Structures are given as C-alpha cells and as structure tokens.
Amino acid sequence: MTITSFHPPRRTLMGPGPSDVNPRITEALSRPTIGHLDPEFIRMMDELKTLIQYAFKTQNRLTLPISAPGSAGMEACFANLVEEGDKVIVCINGVFGGRMKENVERFGGVPVVVESEWGRAVDPVKVEEALTEHPDAAILAFVHAETSTGALSDAETLCRLAKGHDCLTIVDTVTSLGGCELNIDQWGIDAVYSGSQKCLSCVPGLSPVSFSDAAIAKINGRKSKVKSWFLDMSLIMGYWGGEGKRAYHHTAPVNQLYALHEALCILQEEGLENAWERHALHHRALTAGLAAIGLEMLVPEKERLVQLNAVVIPEGVDDAAVRSQLLNAYNLEIGAGLGAFAGKVWRIGLMGYAASKSNVLSCLSALEAALLKQGYSFKAGESIKAASAIYA
Predict the structure, then answer these.
(1) DSSP labels for 107-118?
(2) What is the domain range of residue 323?
(3) What's the CATH code of the domain at 127?
(4) pTM check: above 0.90
(5) Cβ–Cβ < 8 Å for 22, 355
(6) pLDDT per residue over 13-36, tens digit each?
(7) SUPFAM superfamilies under this entry (predicted)?
(8) pLDDT tens digits for 56-94?
(9) Do 283 and 381 sit in the same domain of this protein?
(10) Do 38 and 58 share a domain, yes or no?
C-alpha cells in the first residue's frame, strides 16, 4: 500500500480544545527552522518569556514554555514541588482535579481531597476547613477553569486562604489563560501551568508555566532529586534562563515556539483585558441564543466559564447523533461530556480565534437544524434572533 500525504478536512473547532488556529500562527510555523542554540533563536526565546509573563500578569523570573502539552506542564509543577511525604490539599470538582491527585500520589505526596460538586466552583469554605484540619499541608492544588464542566473557581480567594496557612499553590489555568481574568502576582499563585491550544489559539504541544520565588525556594531546598529528568526545572533553566551562554537540555520544538510567540504577539496587540471582554461578549450571545430555544447551562451564571460552555442535553435528544450531524454536515466540532457528564452535556468552546460572532451564529444555526432532526420542539430561528440582539 502506498501512503500519500495527509490532508485533513477544514473544521470549525468549537469544542474543549484545540481551538481554531489563527492563520498568522500557521504562517509562523512555516518560517525557516534554525538551531535551538542559534543566537537569533535565543533572542526570540527571551521575547517569548516576556510575552508569557504578560499573559500571566507576572514578573516571575522562572516563566517559560514546557516543550510538551498542558499535561506535561501539570506534571512539571508537581514533579518539582512535591516530595515524598508532602501533604497536598487537592480540590476536585471535575476530571482535571482528579489528575492533580494522581500526580501527587505518583510523586510520593499524600493527597487530602476536597470534593466539590461537579459543575460548581471549588468551595472556599471546604478548602479553609481542610487547611485548618491539616496545618502540616505544604501545597494547595486546584483547577481555575475546569474544562470538563465549564466551572470557574475563585482563584484569588483560594490563594489567599493558602497563604494564610503557609501553603504554596499549584493552579491549573489550561483553559483560563487568555480567556478570562488571571493575575498570578496579584493573586499570589506560586506555580501555574497552561496550554497553547485553548484561548491562545496556537497549535497543541506547548505548556506555558510560571513559578514564584517561594516555589523556586521549595525546589532549591528539595531533599531529593526531581523524579523527572526532562521536567526538572533546575536543568531546564540552564537552557531558558540567565544571561550569556545557554546550556543544552533538549532540542526545543523550534517552529512550535515561533507559533506560540506569534500567538502571544496577537494577544498583546489585542490587549489582555480586551481579549477577556471579547470572550465574555460571545459567551453572552451564545447563552442568550441557547436559552431562546429552551437549552439550559450546567453551571450557575456566577461560577460559569465564558470560554467553555457546558450545555445540558434535553431529554430524548441523542448526544452522539447531534455531534455527528454537526461534524459531518457542517464541519463543526463541539465536545462531549466527560466522566459523570458523558451523554448529559455538550461542551461548546469559544476560545481564542474561535470566539467570534460568525462562529456563534453558525453554531446556533447548525445546532437548531440538528435538534429539529431529533424532534426537539422549539421555534426555529429564535436562537439567532436572541444572539443578534446581544450583538446589537
């Protein structure tokens, strides 16, 4: 069998990620590959660190992109900060909080789980109770924007509670970076990781991370080596940090880093706060349209992510059939529910380049057609009318 070049279909990506990639970013990928120790590449690396600091709103000197997706960013935070016997309070209100717990266990830590209802924000009262009951806890870990449910937790309050109990914080911002308010320095976050493929609209495969001075002190004071060689920040910083000559650590994904640099340039041009507001505007239009045809949101309004919308599937509607029709008839991808919400919710992403008026209106129109085919009863055209009223 002769295998020929792969040419994927052109989709509109409105699921939980990856999101649509800005054409400027695909152009950046095609630029000439140079060596990962080339002086010009090192100059670009320094700019990239500054751009990530801008996006995270931090001055942390240990800020860089891990050469792997957000899951590796998560592992980098836990691998470097958790030692054998460390007690870590882990907040679970969805799938990705559960992955935090798994990381604590794999690196020899002792997880203390704080459960919150799926589809709701992490409960600060429960967190404070856990911090009080476990004064020897070293770290509080939680997901800021829970991608599996569309719930947004109050990171500022949770970090303040942790500081009051001498705990470091590890925060998952994979879906929040670039899409809603995030302020590392003001909120006092100690270790944070994100992904390139969500609200930054870059290609998948990179994970921006940042560590505070307190987190660096914890790393420097370890009694044992970091159990991952590739993710050991003390080694990676020889390549990404400091002045003058860089020490070879690994062959960086050169063209992917061009793409992330371009994505962050686009974010800087738009303005961080403007990007947050753009995501919020399209969320308001989408939810107004969904409400107009009787569809409900899973998460209460005040705890709801604007860039990842969990929509309750109406009784009698076939989840897979609707998603299949959207994909095959309209080249439109939305996400299925995860875990406890499999078959019960759709996850509609409005992230980065995909957060646009044309995408919102196209999604609502296609969803109406799919629901009518399922026999779901509503007045056709009402979702477009309601969304258009928000834009007007």
Answers:
(1) TT-EEEEEE--T
(2) 272-391
(3) 3.40.640.10
(4) yes
(5) no
(6) 999 999 999 999 999 999 999 999
(7) PLP-dependent transferases
(8) 999 999 999 999 999 999 999 999 999 999 999 999 999
(9) yes
(10) yes
